Amino acid sequence: MASKSDQLLIVVSILEGRQFPKSQRHTLVVQAKFDGEQLATDPVEHKEQPQFCTELAWELDRRTLHQHRLQRTPIKLQCYAVDSNTSAKENVGYIVLDLRSVQEVKQPPKWYPLLSSKYTKLKPALLLSMVLENDTKQPPDQFKAKKAPPRPGSPVLANVESVKLEAVLNEDEGYHQIGPADLCKDMFILSVTVAFATNLEQLISSSAKLASEGSEFFFFYSLLDNDVTSEPFQNLISPNFEPERASIRIRSNDKLLRAFLSQQQNLQIHLCCGNQSLGRTDIPLAALVKNSVDLAKEAATIEGAFVLQPPNRTKQSLQAVPVDLQPTVGVAIILRREDVSAELPDPPIESRDGLKSPVKKSPGVDIHPEPAPAKTRPRSPSPTHRSPVRPLTSPSPPDRQHSESEAESLPEDAEHVEPKKSESLAPALAAADMALESEADIQASSITVSAPKIAIPASAHHYCFSMDLRSIRHLNVGFPVNCMLRYAYQFFGSAAPIMTNPAVEIKKNTEVFLPQSYCAFDFAALPNQLQDTFLRIPLVVEMWHRDPSSKDILLGTSSVQLSHLLTSEKTRFLGQSDQQHWRQTYSERLPVIKAQGSNEKVAELSYVAVLEDMGLVKAQDILISESSLSGNQVHQKVAVAPHGGEEVAAKSRETLEYKAALELEMWKEMQEDLFDNQLKQKELSHMQALAEEWRKRDREREALVKKKEMEYNLLEEQLQKTLADLEKREKTLAHAEMETQRLQREMRAEHEFSMRELQDSSRRLREDCAHQVELERLKVRQLEEDLTRQQQQLSEAEKKYKLLEKDFQQYRDQQNTRPEIRLQSEINMLRLEKAELERKLESTTKSKLHYKQQWGRALKELARFKQREQENAMIRLKKQQQELEHMRLRYLAAEEKEAVKNEKHELQDIRNELNRLKQQEEKRTWKEPACVSLNESADDHLSRLLEERDTLLRTD
C-alpha cells in the first residue's frame, strides 16, 4: 500500500474553447479517458468561445505513474456535440496529451487544436493545462467528485472530516445508520434502478454465439455491501428483463450523508455470465451531493445511459466501436427524504427497445415494488413445430415440418384463409342420389366411388397436375436392369407411391419407353401455397431394379424441380363448360444419380410435366377420390350431381333414414368446423411463435452482420493504411535504388580511375625495379670481374712464389758455400716478400668473405621485399573487402551483388597479376644469383601510391 506522500493526482484543467461554430440546439461535452477510466465535463453552450472551467483528476501512486510513462499511456480528450432534443452525440474532434509532459510545477495553459475536427474550416481548439499534485487527503476513489468546502465554524463537519463514516445495518428497524445516533434524526431512501441495456453484443467477440441454451446473463452490483442481481436473460441483442427498483432506507442527517457519499467508491454495475464479468460501468455516488440540492424539498438524481467497458483482458481482442454502437446500460440513482416520496414522480427511463428486467435482492436490501414507467412488450411463446392444415383434396393431408424460412410466409397464408364453409361434397343426399342411379351406369364404369367430406377455402384453385415418365436411356450399370420407376408427392393429396408397371428390361446404349407411366392429379390449393411448395420440395423419382428371385434394388434417384413448371409459358385452353383455363408444360432430361456412394450418373430420364389451372373451385362441384383398377393411375375428378330421377330423389328425402343421415351429417359438419377452428387457433399461435423466433434470430444475424461489417471496415482502413505505407516504401525503395545505381556508376568510374592509377603506378614500379635490378646486376658483374682479376693475381703470385722458392732453393744450394750473413739477408728479404704475399692473400680472402656476406644480405633483402609486398597486398585486399561489405550493408538493392562479384573478379585478377609478377621476379632472382640491395626511395614511392589509392577508395 502506497503512503499518502506517494499518492498523486493527475489534474487536467479544461478552461475554454475558441473558433467553435454557434449552435442553439447543441451542447458541448468533453470526455477524458486515461487507463480505461473515463471522466466528462458538464454540458456547456455550443458557441464561439465555450467556457468549460472544469478540472478532471485521476488518482495513482508514483510507481504506477512511472509505469504509465514508460508505456507512454496517453490521455485522450474527446469533444462531443450533444443534441438537446434527441440526446444524440456527434464527435467534434479529439486531443491526445502526453503523460510524460506532466510536471509537478504548474505550467501556463496552452491551446490544443482538435484533431480530425468536424469543423475543418474553423479549426477549433481547447485551452488546457496539466499538473501533477500530491494527494494529502483521505484516498477517495479515482472518480470521486470533490466535496463542497465546509462552512466556517461548523463543528459537525470538523468532526466528520476526522472520522471515517460507516453504514451500520439495524436489522430490527430495517435501515442503515450513518453517523452517531444522537445526530441521525432524518430518514432517507437511496434507490437504484437498472432500466434497460443496449448493444450488449459488442462486449463479446463476433466468433462467439450470442444466445445459446443454458447461457444466462444478468446485471450485478453491490449497494452498501448488499449484493443485487437482476433477473437472468438469454438474449444479448434484445435483453428482456423487467426494471425493478432496489431501495435502501438510511438514517442520518444531510451533512453526514453528504460526507459519507463523498467518501464512497463508485457504484460498479457488472454484466455477468456465470462467474465471468463481461463488462462494467462506474457511477460515482458522490455526484448525488455534487450539486447543492436541498434534500428536504427535492431528490438528488443521477440518470442516463452509461457505457459498459470490457475487462482489460478482453479489450485487446475486441475491435473499437463507434460511439453510437457502444454497449450501454440505463441506470437511475435517486436519493431523497422519506417524507417527500409522494411528491416525487418516478424518473422517466425508457429503454431503446422497450424491454424490462426484474431484480433479485439480497436479504439486506429493502425492496419497494414501485411501478416502472417503461413500456412492456408481450413475450412470444416458445416456438414449436407443428403440421399446418393444408387445403388439399386428400381427406388426411400429410404432416409437414416448417423450417425458419417458412415462419414468416405461413402466417400470411393463414391470415388469407377464410373460415371453411361446409360444402356438400359428400352429404347423405348425394349418397342417396348415387344409390338410385341405374345399375348399368355403375357397371359401365370401372371406378369405385367414395365420397369423403372435404373442406376447401373459397380462394382455392382447382389444379390438374399430370406427369409422363417417357423413357430411360444411357444406362451405366454392368448388368441388364428390369427397370421400374416410383415416386410419391404428398402435396397432391395421396401418400401412396406411383409406379410404372410392368418392369421393362434396359440394356446399355439403348433407350426404352416406359409403359403406363402417365399419372394425373386433381387437387385444390391456394396459388401462393402451390408456388411455395413447388419451390421448396422437389419431386423425387426412384429407379428400381426388380429381381423376381430376390429383393428389389434401388439403383438411383432423380430430383424433378417443379419450380421450372411455374416459370414456363402459359397457354389457354377451353374446358368442358367452355371456360378458359391456363396450361403450363415443361419437359426435360434429368440424370439419375447413384443412390449410394459417389454422385455417379446411372441413367438419363426423360419426362413431361403439365399443370392446368381450372380456376376457382365451384360450390356445386363435388371432389371425389378415384382409383383406377386397370393401371397404377390415380385421378381426382370433379363429378356433377345428375339431373335425372328428381321424383325418386324427392321421395327418398322424406324417409326417416334420410333425415337421420342428414342430422348426422350436419352434426359432423359442426364438429368439423369446431375442430378446424381449434386447429386454426393452434396454427396461428404456432406460426406467430415461429415468426417471433425467426425475427429474433434475424435481429441476431443483423447485429452480427453489423458487427462483422464494422470489423471489416476497420480492417479495410488498416489495409488501406498498410497499402499507403507500402506505396511510400516502394517509392522510397525506388528512390534508393536510383540513388544506389548512381552511386554504383560513380563508384565504378572511381574504381576504373583508381585501377588505371594503380596500373600506371605498378608499371612505373616495375620499370624502377627493373632499372634497380639492372644496376645491381652491373655491380655484381664488376664484382665478379674484380674477383676473377684477384684470382689471376693470386695465381700469378703463387707462380712467382714457386719460382722464388725454386730460386731460393737454388740460391741456398749455391750459397752453401757463402757466408751466413749473406744468407741471412737473403732470407730476410724472402721473409718480407713472403709476409707481403701472405698479407695480400689474407686481404683477398677477406674480400671474398665480404662479397659472400653482401650476396647473402641482398638475398635476405629481396625476400623481405617479397614478404612486404605480400603483406601489403593482403592489407589492400582486406581493406577492399571491408569497403565492399560496407557498401553491401549501405545499399540494399538487388543489383549490388553483381557489382560486388565484378569487384571480386577484378581484385582476383589483380591478385593473379601480382602473383604472376612475383613469380617472374622470383624466377629472375633465382636465375641470376647476385648481391642485391634495394633502394629505399622506391619503397617510399610505392607506399605513397598505395596510400593515395586507399584514400580515394575510402572517400568514394
Characterization of the model:
This protein is an alpha+beta fold. It is 37% helix and 26% strand. It has 14 helices and 34 strands. Strands 22, 23, 24, 25, 26, 27, 28, 29, 30, 31 and 32 form an 11-stranded antiparallel sheet that branches. Strands 10, 11, 12, 15, 18, 19 and 21 form a 7-stranded mixed sheet that branches. Strands 2, 3, 4, 6 and 7 form a 5-stranded antiparallel sheet that branches. α11 runs antiparallel to α14 (936-954) and α12 (820-890) packs parallel to α14. The longest helix is centred in the C-terminal third of the chain and has 159 residues, at 656-814. The two termini are 63 Å apart. The model is unreliable at 138-158, 341-453, 619-646 and 930-934 (pLDDT under 50).
Low-confidence stretches: 138-158, 341-453, 619-646, 930-934
Oligomeric state of shown chains = single chain
Strand count: 34
- Shape summary: elongated
- The rounded Rg comes to 58 Å
Straight-line distance between termini:
63 Å
Strand content range: 25-35%
Largest sheet: 11 strands, antiparallel
Total number of helices: 14
Please identify the structural class as seen in this structure: alpha+beta
Overall mean pLDDT: 76
Estimate percent helicity.
25-40%
